[in-house]
Sequence to fold (275 residues):
Amino acid sequence: MGRQRHTPTTPLADTDPAEDRRFVTALARGLTVLRSFGPSDRWLAHQELARRTGLPQATVSRLTFTLTSLGYLRHRAATGEYALSPAVLSLGFSVLSNFQVGRIARPFMETLAEHTQAAISLGVRHGTSVVYVAHCRSTARLILGLDVGTRLPFAETAMGRAIWCATPPGMRALIAGRLQAENAALWPVREAGLRRAEADHAERGCVTSESEWESEIAAIGVGIDLGDGREPLALTVGGPASRLQGALLHENFGPALVRSGREIVAAIQAAAWED
Fold:
């Protein structure tokens, strides 16, 4: 006898979805691991994940390895604990505008936008890309048309370089390995750009990308490191390369950006925001 089909006389609520041949058990278990993190949880041990999900520890090991490899979990090898990565935001770009850190940062971003008459963006890393979680525009006519959910390359952009400079060495090595595996031929150029960013950050506290991602676009960025183990974000000022250059970019916008970054960090810490 064939499998029963769902019809108007067989409500979905009266059936067990796991019995349907279309149900992917491995996917369901992976999502169960992600859902096991509560609002007040930051790092959870492997054993705690197994307890909360009710899954065998061997299964949890395979799932956490996969989710970490894909960038949805962070792993702290020294303690064997896991934490959600900002990459989970990529699963629902439609809600990114409500991301709490973006709400906290927005007043500072708006002030910076009016000062620079440019586009101000806040972003996180996802794999070898960066994703906008907050964005605001000035009243200037010539500004970037990017918005929340926009995905940009990591190594070529000011946002990616700022995150790189605020990232611990161990994670840098992991990111470098992924970039090299992604495009071995392009890696030497990308690596050189990241090394220049490190030197600029050490000297001025911010990094730039001037006509390196797109020839007509320039941007300057600063890392947002909350100092508690969470993966850093980045704040950037971007706009036409014909305007964002020279002293205006480096001596005016740069210091203003660094100050805004510090103000955002202080505001987030004061609000006790948790990822």
